[in-house]
Write a structure and sequence with these properties.
two-stranded antiparallel ribbon; alpha+beta; globular; 148 residues; single chain
Length: 148
């Protein structure tokens, strides 16, 4: 059984990986969709349909998605939960600016809620406190199936 701590620890292994649209290589290139997929693949997680998550999943999308494809795929493959119940290892979809096309993994930073994500403006995978600006952008929260 995979734990939430293992998800966060695995995601932290990607910190500093340069941002690249559709990147899927730890230490080389990563984008926001790739991060949770790669973490899940490395930990052997499966989606709600019983299919293994693969880093190569969902690798055909524009650099600036114009629809809710990211959100729809999260709904299809993970377990949606109330945003108020966020905990380490959850995956959140975020509006950028209004379309839920960005994803991050929830963590704890200095005792408060944080997030790990591949973020183009920072040019790499980063972890930081989830401030009010980011919290307002949350569209939905999910957990990987089978995680304790």
């Amino acid at each position: 059984m995979v734990t939430r701590k293992q998800i966060v620890d695995k995601a932290r292994e990607y910190l500093g990986t340069p941002y690249l649209h559709q990147g899927r290589l730890k230490g080389i290139a990563m984008d926001c969709v790739g991060l949770p997929l790669m973490v899940a693949e490395e930990l052997g997680l499966k989606d709600t349909l019983g299919n293994p998550f693969k880093g190569s999943d969902n690798a055909n999308y524009s650099a600036q998605p114009l629809d809710q494809a990211v959100q729809d795929e999260a709904i299809r493959r993970m377990i949606q939960k109330p945003i108020e119940n966020l905990t380490d290892g959850d995956v959140i979809t975020l509006r950028v600016p209004t379309i839920p096309c960005h994803v991050a993994i929830v963590s704890t930073v200095n005792g408060t809620t944080g997030m790990i994500h591949a973020y183009k403006p920072n040019g790499k995978v980063v972890e930081h406190i989830m401030d009010a600006k980011w919290k307002k952008r949350i569209a939905a929260a999910f957990e990987f199936p089978g995680v304790e």
